[in-house]
Amino acid sequence: MNTNLFNGIGLTGMGLALALSACVSTPQPNAALENARIAVQTAEADPNVAKYAALDLETAKNDLAAAEDAQMHHHDAAVDQPAYLAAQNARLAQARASAKADDARVAAGQTERDQIMLAARTREVQNAKMAANAAKMETNAAMAATTEALGQRDQAAEEAARLQAEVDALKAKPTPRGLVMTLGDVLFDTGKAMLNPGAARKLDQLAQFLNEHPDRRVQIDGFTDSVGTDSYNEDLSRRRADAVKAALTMRGIDASRIGTQGYGKAYPVADNNDSGGRQLNRRVEVVIGEDNGSAISPRSGS
Predict the structure, then answer these.
(1) Are the CB atoms for 144 and 252 separated by under 8 Å?
(2) What's the pTM value of the predicted model, to 2 decimals?
(3) Beta carbons of 108 and 196 less than 8 angstroms apart
(4) Contacts of 154 (CB under 8 A, 6+ apart)
(5) Helical ranges in the chain per DSSP H
(6) Helix (H) or strand (E) holding 218
(7) Over the stretch 235-248, which tens digit does the pLDDT of each residue have?
């Protein structure tokens, strides 16, 4: 028999064996595992994760290692669960790290802001005292009326006291345009229009007030300091005002009740020549109209 024929058959058999062996030993692609790898790599690249959520990241990496080990040993049924856990723990690490970073940023800015706002709060206290004195005079006048009128005025006084308590909770001050609640730039990242989680409490209070007073309209005005171009400042101030509007509509306030305007560096409340004054000028003012549903007058003056 032909020796070359035997040799050819032998070589062909060895090639088939090697091909089958390669198919058996090469792990097949797994979508859950690929997603887990991407999620873990993304979390590892986030500097906040290493700083604030290292344990969560380590858990995700351990889960990923278990999934890869199962794939390597061709235990396909055992890949999906640790891969899913790896992806979830990686995303959890990023979420926790982001929240803790926001909290740290708000806390750092709050200390400086408290010092800067001390003088402004003194003026707010004086306005509150004036409002309280006015309410007291109205109550004294009601007591001199008839029993029926007294009952009506007592009810009005209770409503006024309740309203004043709500206004105090908002830290709003009366102005000719309406009640004004100021949101400082510490509630935004520098140069950004996205609200930080630290703004949630104030916005929750404001939304509750507006839900309880459905006839009141709202005007949201954004302002910046004098740093940067006029067009940049006007755009940033407008986007910040729109961000507050979006947050209120998400809390159930009808968008038709809310107007927005970006004024850029116009209408400063402090001197732009120092950092403290510039921080006070970087703000969003929420103007709450009267309870009769009337429109809020346009801003005027310096």
Answers:
(1) no
(2) 0.48
(3) no
(4) 142
(5) 3-25, 31-45, 47-52, 54-72, 80-116, 118-143, 147-170, 200-212, 230-250, 275-281
(6) strand 218-223
(7) 999 999 999 999 99
